[in-house]
Write a structure and sequence with these properties.
With 318 residues, the chain is of the alpha+beta class. The chain is built from ten helices and 13 strands. It starts with a helix and ends in an 11-residue tail after the last strand.
Length: 318
């Protein structure tokens, strides 16, 4: 099987066909006619074998994660995911591998009504680059730069399980069987918080998705908003499996682990009640973990006592 046969067989046919796409796969470019008064949010992420996922990860999980991490970026901006393009580099064409990879891709695309509109296939070491685009009402996108001192810091879901799963895979820890499957799923099949992003867009001052680690990503908000922040360690939401496996080191791993793809966002006092009610009504889990301040640095406390935890979030070339 050659390149164009591969594209036609596995990538051309799909369920989702969005009305904004006037020309999809098959030409030199796709054509999009965006709705009036909508901005297009655009993000790109590359996943490389052995860096972003272990080499023995299932193709379905790789396909899922390639889409999920990009939709998570759109969620952090409060955007509605709409279209993706995929550039995939394969060592060889293994039809069974490609079919399972596409299952992971299209399961998530269909769930969030996202259309694949193009991409590229090449031969080489395994890597996947996805560009995702979404729609957001003009002037309403969430940014990292809107936080102010005295606002409340929130996260969705639980933090740290993906990093714990990676430590288990590397043989650095052993997760009890009762918790193993659910924790490994957090690494291989992250769930982008799309609905949460569109909900908090009405209330939050700033937001980011947690990909490099809670502490590192909060630092990005603080730097771009010119504020400081304090995290209350006992308020970080941790799973039972994390606590059982890591004990006293659980909070440290949650702060620095990364790969959570939960949302981290900042809300002013006046919007706090409305935001909490909205998320509760939608059944979206959230926790308030701290507050911004004037210090221009990020600190951590436990039982109101300062704790020094060094940021070790993921950064390429570090």
């Amino acid at each position: 099987m050659k390149e164009f046969e591969l594209i036609k067989r596995y990538f051309t046919e799909q369920v989702v066909k969005r009305k904004e796409v006037t020309l999809g796969i098959g030409d030199d470019c796709a054509l999009i006619l965006p709705p009036q008064n909508q901005e297009i949010a655009i993000t790109t992420d590359t996943l490389v074998s052995g860096v972003h996922f272990p080499e023995n990860t299932s193709p379905r999980a790789i396909g899922h994660k390639a889409i999920a991490v990009n939709l998570s970026d759109l969620a952090a901006m409060g955007a509605e995911p709409s279209w993706v393009s995929i550039a995939i580099t394969l060592p060889t064409i293994d039809q069974a591998w490609v079919e399972e990879f596409c299952q992971g891709v299209f399961e998530l695309c269909e769930y969030f009504n996202v259309q694949l509109i193009g991409g590229d296939t090449t031969q080489g070491p395994l890597s996947i680059t996805v560009t995702a685009q979404g729609l957001c009402p003009e002037g309403n996108a969430l940014k990292r730069s809107g936080a102010a001192p005295g606002q409340w810091i929130y996260v969705t879901g639980q933090i740290g399980d993906a990093a714990l799963a990676l430590k288990h895979i590397k043989g650095e820890v052993v997760i009890e069987p009762a918790f193993r499957e659910s924790i490994l799923e957090r690494l291989e099949y992250p769930k982008p918080r799309v609905l949460a992003g569109q909900t908090i867009r009405l209330y939050a001052s700033a937001a980011i998705d947690i990909s490099d680690g809670l502490l590192a990503d909060l630092t990005h908000i603080c730097e771009q908003s010119n504020v400081g922040a304090n995290i209350v360690l006992e308020n970080i939401p941790l799973s039972k499996g994390m606590l059982a496996t890591m004990g006293d080191e659980a909070a440290n791993l949650a702060l620095n682990g990364g790969d959570d793809y939960e949302l981290l966002f900042v809300v002013a006092e006046a919007n706090k009640g409305g935001m909490e009610t909205a998320l509760q009504q939608l059944g979206i889990p959230f926790s308030c973990i701290g507050q911004t301040n004037h210090t221009n640095k990020v600190t951590t406390t436990i039982n109101e006592q300062a704790i020094d935890i060094k940021s070790a979030g993921f950064e390429h070339f570090s």
